[in-house]
Amino acid sequence: MDVFPYPVARIGIIGGGQLGRMMVKAAKRLGCTCVVLDPTPGSPAGQVSGHQIVGDYHDPAKLRELCESCDVTTFDIEDIDSDTLEELAREGRRIYPSPRVLAVIQDKLTQKQALTDAGIATAPFIPMPEPTPEAFAAFGYPLVQKARRGGYDGRGVVVMRSAADYPQHLPVPSLVERFIPATKELAVLVARGRDGDCRCYPVVEMQMRPAGNMLDMLLAPAEVSRVTAAAAASLAQRTVESLDGVGVFGIELFLTETGDLMVNEVAPRTHNSGHHTIEANMTDQFEQHLRAVLGLPLGATDQLSPAVMINLLGAPGHRGRPVIKGLAAALAIPGVCVHIYGKAAAAPLRKMGHVTVLDRDLASARHKAERVRAIIEITAEDHP
Amino acid sequence: MDVFPYPVARIGIIGGGQLGRMMVKAAKRLGCTCVVLDPTPGSPAGQVSGHQIVGDYHDPAKLRELCESCDVTTFDIEDIDSDTLEELAREGRRIYPSPRVLAVIQDKLTQKQALTDAGIATAPFIPMPEPTPEAFAAFGYPLVQKARRGGYDGRGVVVMRSAADYPQHLPVPSLVERFIPATKELAVLVARGRDGDCRCYPVVEMQMRPAGNMLDMLLAPAEVSRVTAAAAASLAQRTVESLDGVGVFGIELFLTETGDLMVNEVAPRTHNSGHHTIEANMTDQFEQHLRAVLGLPLGATDQLSPAVMINLLGAPGHRGRPVIKGLAAALAIPGVCVHIYGKAAAAPLRKMGHVTVLDRDLASARHKAERVRAIIEITAEDHP
């Protein structure tokens, strides 16, 4: 049975961003070919796949064209027409994670309900179909409002400390949850195979930007006790098992002041908190995801070196053809690995790349990452 | 000065094989775009570059088209029309390593003469423009005949123990050198920047296939004394410096029975003995090569984990669309990283991929690599 005429598989990827780009590279390494579906011609993933269908993630015809031309389809985003995917899955198309799981997770309210139903610790919440000052007040401040759909990279999430923050609220169907004063935000990448085999990566710490709720710096491994690390892995694994997920999932966790762990969010895909695995771990998250969705054995998740990762964001006030400043200076620092995503245009806070720093000492890696952040700047040409 | 409008550089790569394929991936990670020149449409490198010029390495017009459309041109093979490259370099095109260095190295006789002139230890040799039984006998057996041009992967090299081996000789302009009874064959990857900065990777041991003179298994690091490792690095670095090389060079060495080191061959390009650096070292050889030829700072060469590498060769008697057997079984072994090159057709002994095994213990990695070699087989469909 273990016989694969080349290509090992034709893989469809919905979404042509950086996650898809890194997934395509892993796919080709494994002897697969790829087709990417993305509305932007020459998307980051399309540049390496060699084949892109230009189309929207909500276009049933394009989704069908992709799934019907591939052996297995997966995705690097969540904002997809999951009804069409469910229909294609019913017709026998292989789509992982399953469109059912995607549908549950892409709506943050049903995601929370699923976690609660499975007995997974998570912040107390209520649905809020129509946000009003009275409804927020009735739930009580401080709170976190989350839009049911379409949020990512901090978009769709608002922390409201008191009624004075009401003007920042999102006027869309939402849930509100209790604000958790976390001492750390952690993340665990979990890979789960089609056969149910599960592998967790060592828990990492996500330091968030105070403004914007975006990942600022990732420390791998997290500086937590062994007990906490094991508990985080266990909770993350139970989360993915309860959802019957197949593929790599990013599980974001709060470590509370009382030492408890709670699941904050679930991403049914490879995750920003796992970029360091390309250099630092035995099997990177992208290959691991592909192994899972292809029904191949999962790889070892051992970490070979401490690592710190920062995102390279577009500078404020700049749009257009990217200009990378400080690349040479950053590369002069030992252990600095730069990843540029090949996006045709920069925009403020847009993820244009990332840097992973390897160092035997995590504190030293962190110090180097801080230097890199001060050195590299991604702006745009004045006349794009 | 450290400002790069995207793309950081347009890189031309002459040769679209596996080395070019891995180089393209590194190039895109660094924010570069690539054009590949290769006669086979959809070459391994062309599949990831997104842009390939289909043409021969000896076609002056195609070489010119490539170099004129790129900021920097490099190569993953040696059998190129170096006269045209020299002409392009004189016109100001940036080509690294320099066509002059390529010309010296691609002719094994001038390569040997250059090494000898620089005082680099190497096996005694004489030119042999027209091989005859008398000429071989006059030099004395055992000897090694090397064709001046066109050899690679053991082709163009014949070991002749005695006059009885004469029928195996190559009827082409050659050199003959003294057969060196080596206890180990070693290799050192050396990166040298445009500014002369040099970085050596830890010395590795190449175990060769008895038949065919091809690399059978690579052990990284080599099991040699610290003194020998340092001497190997020093000799390799002096070799590249003496040639004024820019880029990554693979320096193959003999460790003799008396503990001496001699340079066997020089490859002016990334090398089969450095594939493990993708997973095992801080900076992989492909990114390192690009840093060198682009004038960027060289990266750290530290090895993070012991590693063993084997090539995946086409099985004897099989030609046509590749069929990969045992992929899943091999991936089930922890630390096994499989690289498939995407070649459209398998052929006997053709390099179809490689496997790097990471393990904390080199002996265990080696044992796993032997298991993988017994498990994975690349054949071809009966009806291609």
From TrEMBL, chains A, B:
ATP binds at K108, K146, E177, R178, F179, I180, E185, N264, E265. The keyword Ribonucleoprotein does not apply. One of its GO terms (biological process) is 'de novo' IMP biosynthetic process. GO terms for molecular function: 5-(carboxyamino)imidazole ribonucleotide synthase activity; ATP binding; metal ion binding; phosphoribosylaminoimidazole carboxylase activity. Residues 112-294 form the ATP-grasp domain. Catalyzes the ATP-dependent conversion of 5-aminoimidazole ribonucleotide (AIR) and HCO(3)- to N5-carboxyaminoimidazole ribonucleotide (N5-CAIR). This is N5-carboxyaminoimidazole ribonucleotide synthase. The lineage of its organism: Bacteria, Pseudomonadati, Pseudomonadota, Gammaproteobacteria, Chromatiales. The gene is purK.
